[in-house]
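Name: Chitosanase
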Amino acid sequence: MILGVGSEDEIPLADRPREAQKTTTPAQNPLKSGTASERRALEARIAKMPAGLAAPAKKEIAARLVSTAEHSTLNWRGQYDAIEDLGDGNGYTAGIIGFCSGTNDMLQLVEAYTAEHPGNGLAPYLPALREVDGTDSHEGLDPGFADAWVAEAGKPAFRAAQDAARDRIYFDPAVRLAKMDGLGTLGQFIYYDAMLLHGPGLEPDGFYGIRQASMEKARTAAEGGAERRYLNAFLDESRSAMRARTGPGTRDTSRIDTAQRVFLRNGNMALAAPLEWRMYGEWFRIPATPDVTGRPPGSP
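Structure predicted for Chitosanase:
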C-alpha cells in the first residue's frame, strides 16, 4: 500500500464518485455459497469460459500494472525481496504484491512455505507473525525478520511460494468471480486489484462488501446490465473505500483515476496492449507484445 495525495481535479466531474453507501444485506462470497454440488457446477461453468486475465500474456500485464501501484516499477519479478513498514497500520509490507504482517496474507504465505520447506529462515518467526496478525506491531519480528525475508527471497522455492499465495488468495478467486459476473479481461483485472487492495473481506470496505454495494447501484453483465456502467459503479465504491480508510486526500487513488478508469473510459475491455497509464505522477507503458519470458522490461 502506498500513501499519497490524490489529484481530484484531474477526474472529470461525471466520473467523481459518490460516497459509498452502507449496504444493509451482509455481503457473501458466491464462490463459497450454496451446496457442494452447486459450487462444483459453478466452478465447472467458469472453467469453460475463455482464459481472460489468466492467459499468460494478460497475467503478465496484470502483474506489471500491480507492480507500478505497489512498487512504482514494471519489474515485478525484482520485488520478491522488497520489505518495509510503510506506516499505513499494516506492519511490514513485503514481496511481489505487498504481503502484510498485519493483514494475515503474510502469515498464510509463511505457513504454506514452511509446510513445504520446514526449517526455512522465516519459520522461527511464525509465532510472532501469529501474534502480530491484525496489528502494525513488529514485536518478535525485529530485528531479524526483514533480513531473513531478503535472504529467503533469494531462493526459487520462496519466490514460487509468493506466486502461489498470490494466486490462491487473490488472483484466482477474483478472476473466477469476475467471470461469474460476466466481466471481460479489464473487469477481471479491476476485481483482482481491488481484492489485493481491500482484502477478501465481507465487511463493507472489504472486496465482497464493495462488490455488493456496486451491485445495488448497477447490474452486472451476467444480470443483463451494461458492463461499463457496472464497472464504473464498482470503481466508485472501491475509490470511496480507499479515501475513507485514512481520510479524504490522504490516500493516492492513481490506480483507479489514472489507470483503470482511463482504460475503461477508452473502452479497452480486453485490457489489450499497448497500454499507457500514470501512477503517482509517473508514466508507464506496456508495448503491444509484452514479453512473458521473465526478463525485466526493457532488457535485451
